[in-house]
Amino acid sequence: MEPAGGAWERLDENSPQARRASSSSSLVAEVLAALAYGELRGAERSLESVSLAPDAHSRTEQQHVAGLELKNQELIEARLRELGEEELIDRFRPYFDAFFDHTQPRDWIEAQTFHYVGDALVADFADVLIPLLDRVSAEVVRRALREREDQETFALDELTQAIRGDPAVSERIRKFSQRIVGEAFTQTSRALGATEGLRALLGGEEAGKRFVIQMLDGHRQRLDRLGIEPVESD
Fold first, then answer.
1. pTM greater than 0.90 (yes/no)
2. What is the DSSP letter of 15?
3. pLDDT by residue (tens digit) across 96-123?
4. C-alpha angle with apex 122: 120 to 124, nearest 5 degrees?
5. Which of 106, 138, 202, 207 is the most exposed place for a label (fewest CB within 10 A)?
6. Ranges of each domain in the chain
7. CATH topology of domain 17-225
8. pLDDT tens per residue, range 41-98
9. In 51-104, where does DSSP find H-type helix?
10. Cα separation of 21 and 43, whole Å?
């Protein structure tokens, strides 16, 4: 793959342009490291959800989702290896591990709530990141994180059917959504405070806060599609 920006290899390594490119590359590598580990945990969660499926069709569809997540993780990690060290992943483990540990689904409905809400948040995240990255990394992120309409549609259909069968299910979905969103924003804020890459790419701490608010607004709209009262912000 061509280096980010398409011309970094032709720059004198001591030139100001080369130093800026190197700095930018380090920031992007840090972000890619976070995404790579997040996708790894996402693939593991998708595989775990297979055992919760109520029938053979659902199991097959969920296995397909898990396979896509694993391919996404491999794609991001390959780009990370081109720009930086895989050891960068280690600094993000505590945040993603906390998020996944605190949002463990107990059944199929909670599993699909996790995928519906989680995939949507990931897609929103990609929308913000893509314009900030070099051309190659942006395409990698777009392919890995943005193109997940089939996954979101499957989860939405499963939840819609569950609500039709038992309207009381909507309250369970709302509460679990609230847990997922709250934990996602808590860990995102922790990661923003502890690492430079994403904070720098977004444009500083205040821009990071606006990013979180923007993602919450998108989440409200998706709950509206299920006819569920949105999560209220503090």
1. no
2. S
3. 999 999 999 999 999 999 998 888 888 8
4. 70
5. 106
6. 17-225
7. Ferritin (1.20.1260)
8. 999 999 999 999 999 999 999 999 899 889 999 999 999 999 877 888 988 899 999 9
9. 56-83, 93-101
10. 32
